[in-house]
Amino acid sequence: MKAFFTLLLSVLSVAHLNAQSSLPSSIKGNWFLVDGSNTLELRVSDNYMMYESDFWSFKDPSKKGKEWHVNLSQPGKARQIIIREVGDFLILEDGRIIKRLSKNKLGDERQRMPNQHVWQDDFFKSSQVTLSGVVKPKGEMPLTASVIYNHAFSSGQQKFTVNVDEQGRFKIFFPLDNPQDIMFRVGEVFTMFLAEPDSKMAVFVDEEKAVSGIDGWYAESPISFMGALAKENEELRVVKPKYMKVRNYFENDSLQKALEPMEYLEYRLDLLKEHQNFYQNYFSENIPSRIVKEYSERNINLYAANDLMRYRWLHGADNGALTPIDLPEAYEAKVKEMIDDEPLNMLAGEFGDLMREFSMAMMPKEREAMHDYRIEQVYGFLKSKIISETGRAEIEEWKIEEKKREKHFGYVKLSDPLKARTEEFSKELLELNQKITWDDLLMRIDKLDPMSKSSIIATYIDESYFSRGNELPQVIWGKVKTLNLNSTARSVLERKYSDFVILKDKKFVNGIEIVDSEGDVLSQLKKTYPGKVVYIDVWATWCGPCITEFSHLPEIKANFKEDDNVVFVYLGAQSEKKSWETMVKKHELKGENFFLDDAQYAKFDQAVNITGFPTYMVITKEGKLIREGIKRPSAKKELVEQLKGFAKR
C-alpha cells in the first residue's frame, strides 16, 4: 500500500509539472541568434511570443523533462515549438530546425557571417512591408508608432502611423516600390533602417535606453531586429554612431556659409574622402554584408552631393532669409559627375532629397534665363491674340517694363490693361506658362542620367499637378509618354493620371453605402446580417493589389443579383479617410463600406491577425468567421462556387 501511494504521489507530481500554466521567468525576454548576426529570433512574454516577425498567442505550455512544449496560435493558424535552457543559452526546435540562442547580444569580438545578397533584376518590385514590434516604455506607453520615408517618384514624405497597444505591441503595413531606408519613430526613439518590398520585419524597442539630443547621434539605437534585413540593420545600427563621429556636421554647416563656391567644393570633396576612408577601414576589419557596403557608400556620396547643391541657398542665408547664389559651371558639372544611373542609389533617402534640389530653378542665373524665355513666349502669344493697334502698343510697353522688373522668380506679371484684354483666353495663357516651366525643367536636367531624370519628372508632376488637384495639360502628358522613363516611375505616373481623369468627371452611382463603424466591427456585422453569408474585403487605399482586385467584383456580384443571402462588405484601414471615401466612389464599391480608424483597426487586427492587404474572409450564416482558404475576386468562378457553397449550408 505504501508503494502504491508513493507511485501515486510521483504521478501527481509529474502531472503537476506538465500542467504548469506559465513559462519560468528565466525564459522570458529577448533571445538572439549566436551565429554572429545578433539578430532577434524570439521574444517571450507572459501570454504571447514574437517569432518569425509575427505575434503568437500561447497558454498552458507543458514541460517534458527539461523541454518546454509550447503551442503557438493565431486566428486560423497553429504550430508547436520546443524550447529548453542549457546554461545561459536557449535551444529552440521548430520541426527539423534547431537554433541556439543567447539572452544577450555578442560583443564586437563576434564572428560575423556577412550576407552577400544584393538586389539585381528585382530591385523595383511594388509591394508592401509588414513591420511588427514591441516597445519597452521609458515611462507611460507611447501612443503611436510611425514609419516615414521619401518616395523617389512622388512628392512629399510618405507617413504611416498606428496605435501601440497596452502591451507595447504594434503592426504597420506600408507600401514600397524598391528597397530603401525608412525613418521610424516610437516614443523618444527616432532612427533609420532598411526595408524592402514584399517582406516581414519585426523590432524590439527599448525606450528606456534611448539617448536624446545630439548625444543620440553617437549612441547605438536601442532596437533589435527580426526578419527581413535583420542582419543588415543590426550592422548599420552598430556602424552608424561610429560614422557620425567623423561626419563633421557642425563644421560643414559653418563652412557652407563661410567659404566661396570652389573653396567649399574642395572642402566637401575632401570630407567625402574622409568618410570613404572611414568605411573602407571599418569594412576591412569587420567584413560587412554587400547590402550594408552598397548602402553606406552610396549614402555618403549622395549626402555630399546634397550638401553641394544646398550650398546655393544656405551660403547666402542671413537671419533666416534665403538669398540664393549662382554656382560656377565647373562646380555644377562636378556635382552631376557624382551621380550615376544605378538603381541602388535609391537605397538612400538622400536620393529623393537630391533630386528635389535639381528640380528647383533657384539660382539667379536660372531665374533670369527662365524669365527671359517666358517673356519671349508670352510676348509671341499675346501678339497672336491681340491685333488692335492700342493692344499691340500695350504689349510692346509691357515687354520693355517686364524686362526691367526685379524679384520676378522667373515668372512674368501682366500689366492691368493686358490683364483685362486676356481674360477671354486666360486658360490658354495658363497652359502656356505651365509648358514654359516644363520646358525649362527639361532643359535644366538634360545632362542628368535617365534614373535621375525619371525621379525629377515624376516628382515634379506629382507636386505641381496631382497632389494639388490641378489638371495636367495634355501637351505635358503627351511629352511624358515619349520620354525614356524608368518603368516604375512611369507606372506611378500612369496610375495617378488615371485616378485624376476618372475622378474629374465621375458621376457616382447609387448603391454605395458608407457606414459608421462601431468599436467591434465583427460583432456589428454579425448583428446586422444574421443568417447571411458576409464576404469581407479588407483593403487600403495605397495597396495596388487591392485596387486590381476591384475590377473583378462586378462579374462576381452578377452571380448573386437574385440571392440576398450573400452580402459584400469592404473594410478600409491604415489609410487617410478622405482618400478612402474618394476611392470607394471611384471604384463603385457597391455594398457596405466601413472605415476603421487606428483604434478600431487595432481591435480588429487582434481578433483576426491581418498579415497584409488585401485580406479576404467570410462570416458564415451561423456567425462563424472563416479566413483561411477564402478566394479573392480574381479567382472568379472559384470564389462564386465558394460563396454559393456557404449559402447552401
Fold and architecture overview:
With 649 residues, the protein is α+β, with helices and mostly antiparallel strands. The protein folds into four domains: 2-102, Lipocalin (Beta Barrel), CATH 2.40.128; 127-244, Immunoglobulin-like; 249-359, no CATH class; 512-648, Glutaredoxin, CATH 3.40.30. 41% of the residues lie in helices and 22% in strands. The chain is built from 20 helices and 23 strands. It has a nine-stranded antiparallel β-sheet with strand order 4-3-2-1-9-8-7-6-5, with no helix packed on it. A six-stranded mixed β-sheet has the order 18-21-20-19-22-23, with helices on both faces. A four-stranded mixed β-sheet has the order 13-10-16-17. A hairpin with a 2-residue loop joins strand 14 and strand 15. Helix 7 (350-359) crosses helix 12 (450-464). The protein is flat and about 100 Å long.
The low-confidence runs, each spanning 5 or more residues with pLDDT under 50, are 1-20, 507-512
How many structural domains in the coordinates?
4
Main sheet specs = 9 strands, antiparallel
How many DSSP-defined strands?
23
Notable characteristics:
649 residues, Lipocalin, Immunoglobulin-like, 4 domains, nine-stranded antiparallel beta sheet, 41% helix
What is the secondary structure topology, with strand pairs?
Blueprint: H1 2-18, E1 29-33, E2 40-44, E3 48-51, E4 54-57, E5 62-64, E6 67-74, E7 77-86, E8 89-94, E9 97-102, E10 127-136, E11 144-150, E12 157-163, E13 169-176, E14 180-186, E15 189-195, E16 199-206, E17 223-227, H2 230-244, H3 249-258, H4 261-286, H5 290-314, H6 329-337, H7 350-359, H8 364-385, H9 389-404, H10 416-421, H11 426-444, H12 450-464, H13 474-480, H14 487-504, E18 512-515, H15 521-528, E19 533-539, H16 544-550, H17 553-557, E20 566-572, H18 577-586, E21 591-595, H19 598-608, E22 615-619, E23 625-626, H20 637-648
Parallel strand pairs: 10-16, 18-21, 19-20, 20-21
Antiparallel strand pairs: 1-2, 1-9, 2-3, 3-4, 5-6, 6-7, 7-8, 8-9, 10-13, 11-12, 11-14, 14-15, 16-17, 19-22, 22-23
Helix pairs in contact: 4-5, 5-7, 7-12, 8-9, 8-11, 12-14
